[in-house]
Amino acid sequence: MKMIRVASNSRTSGVAGAIAHSIRESGEVQIQAIGAGAVNQMIKATIQAKNFLAEEGTGIVFTADYVDVDIDGDMRTALRLTITPSANAWQTAVPQPTAVGALKPISAD
Fold first, then answer.
1. Crossing angle (nearest 10°) for helices 36-54 and 12-26
2. Residue-wise pLDDT tens for the chain (109 aa)?
3. What is the reported pLDDT for 92?
4. If you ran DSSP here, which 8-state letter would residue 101 be given?
5. Which domains are assigned to the chain?
6. Cα separation, 73 vs 109, whole angstroms
7. Rounded Cα distance, 64 and 60, in Å
8. Which string of DSSP letters, residue by residue, matches 8-77?
9. Phi, psi torsion values for 98, nearest 5 degrees
């Protein structure tokens, strides 16, 4: 599985394009960041990739994990997202109003 490392100065559009490309090509990708600025860029890029793929009818879902990373003998904690496609994830994320104006629950099917 491809691993994309994100830094605080990473261009979100570039990372988003790499995420979308990996989803199209192999169906999954992992992205990883260390530090608040890098995590911020990673999340923004993931949202942008979701929007790119939604235009093609593909949604994405991810799982998040903390992982220990050895950087020059120094152990750091990184946030890693594993992203996979979901055909209807972007459509079911918004609650739909019912005829009486109340919100109906999102179905899990």
1. 50
2. 899 999 999 999 999 999 999 999 999 999 999 999 999 999 999 999 999 999 888 999 999 999 999 999 999 999 999 999 986 654 544 445 555 555 566 666 5
3. 44
4. S
5. 3-92 (3.30.110.20)
6. 46
7. 13
8. TT--HHHHHHHHHHHHHHHS-EEEEE-SHHHHHHHHHHHHHHHHHHHTTT-EEEEEEEEEEEEETTEEEE
9. -95, 180
pTM assigned to the model: 0.78
What is the reported pLDDT for 100? 55
In whole angstroms, give the CA distance from residue 13 to residue 45: 6
Sign of CA dihedral 11, 25, 34, 42: positive
Q: Which residue has the tokens 């739909």?
A: 96
- As a whole number of angstroms, the distance between CA 83 and CA 23 comes to 8
Cβ proximity of 28 and 83 under 8 Å: yes
Q: What pLDDT does 99 receive?
A: 56
Which one-letter amino acid corresponds to residue 21? Answer: H
